[in-house]
């Protein structure tokens, strides 16, 4: 049975994935939706990735591979887990939905540690992007919309590795709900 872990963004919790989780369960996936707590921005993305790693070590501790999907900030948290905490050896597929891989200018509007890590040129993003090609070891998909006014510029959502899938969904918040983006996620998980 295929397993998938869905990692939420900064201002939502796991319930943002209700519709996607149901679609995946109907296709036979076992779905995990951990809640990560950034304490209103006081924790950085490294600490959130450590929370994710702890969840995965507790709930998926059998050594079997799984797929990892991150929404917005959750995509960067997931990347840190994959690239820095050993996740690359545990996952088959990585799907990032509207995630600011190269930062977002809107992060300047939330002056807390969580958002500081998502500013263009942040040390965390520079570190992850230095060896982004490690993601070539798994099936990687970036899903983005040109109508994303939270991730600015929207092309920041496009990793330089793997597949890039454009969906015309407006706005950023609908990327977890809209049929087009959910279809893109399902297809990315079914690929290869």
Say how many strands there are: 6
Strand content: 15-25%
- Distance between termini? 16 Å
Fourth CATH level, the homologous superfamily: Alpha/Beta hydrolase fold, catalytic domain
Output the helix-strand order: EHEHEHEHHEEH
Name the CATH class: Alpha Beta
Oligomeric status: single chain
**CATH architecture level-2 label:** 3-Layer(aba) Sandwich
Written description of the protein model:
By secondary structure, the chain is an alpha/beta fold. It has one domain: Rossmann fold (3-Layer(aba) Sandwich). The chain contains six helices and six strands; from the N terminus they run E-H-E-H-E-H-E-H-H-E-E-H. Strand 3, helix 3 and strand 4 form a beta-alpha-beta unit. The chain is globular and about 40 Å long. The two termini are 16 Å apart. The mean pLDDT is 96.
Annotation keywords:
alpha/beta; Rossmann fold; 6 helices; globular
Indicate the topology.
Layout: E1 3-7, H1 18-26, E2 30-32, H2 45-59, E3 66-71, H3 73-84, E4 91-97, H4 113-116, H5 123-130, E5 139-144, E6 163-166, H6 179-190
Parallel strand pairs: 1-2, 1-3, 3-4, 4-5, 5-6
Helix pairs in contact: 2-3
Concise description?
The protein has 192 residues and is an alpha/beta fold. It has helices at residues 18-26, 45-59, 73-84, 113-116, 123-130, 179-190, and strands at 3-7, 30-32, 66-71, 91-97, 139-144, 163-166. Strand 1, helix 1 (18-26) and strand 2 form a beta-alpha-beta unit.
């Amino acid at each position: 049975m295929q397993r998938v872990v869905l990692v939420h963004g900064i201002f939502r919790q796991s319930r943002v994935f209700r519709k996607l989780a149901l679609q995946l369960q109907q296709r036979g996936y076992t779905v995990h939706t951990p809640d990560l707590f950034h304490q209103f921005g006081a924790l950085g993305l490294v600490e959130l990735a450590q929370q994710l790693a702890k969840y995965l070590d507790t709930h998926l501790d059998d050594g079997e591979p799984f797929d990892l999907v991150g929404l917005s900030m959750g995509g960067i948290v997931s990347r840190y887990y994959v690239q820095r905490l050993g996740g690359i050896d545990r996952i088959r597929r990585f799907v990032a939905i509207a995630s600011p891989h190269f930062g977002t200018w809107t992060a300047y509007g939330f002056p807390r540690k969580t958002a500081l890590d998502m500013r263009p040129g942040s040390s965390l993003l520079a570190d992850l992007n230095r060896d982004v090609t490690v993601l070539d070891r798994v099936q990687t998909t970036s899903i983005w919309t040109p109508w994303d006014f939270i991730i600015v510029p929207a092309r920041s959502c496009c990793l330089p590795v793997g597949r890039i899938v454009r969906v015309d969904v407006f706005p950023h918040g609908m990327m977890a709900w809209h049929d087009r983006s959910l279809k893109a996620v399902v297809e990315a998980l079914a690929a290869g």
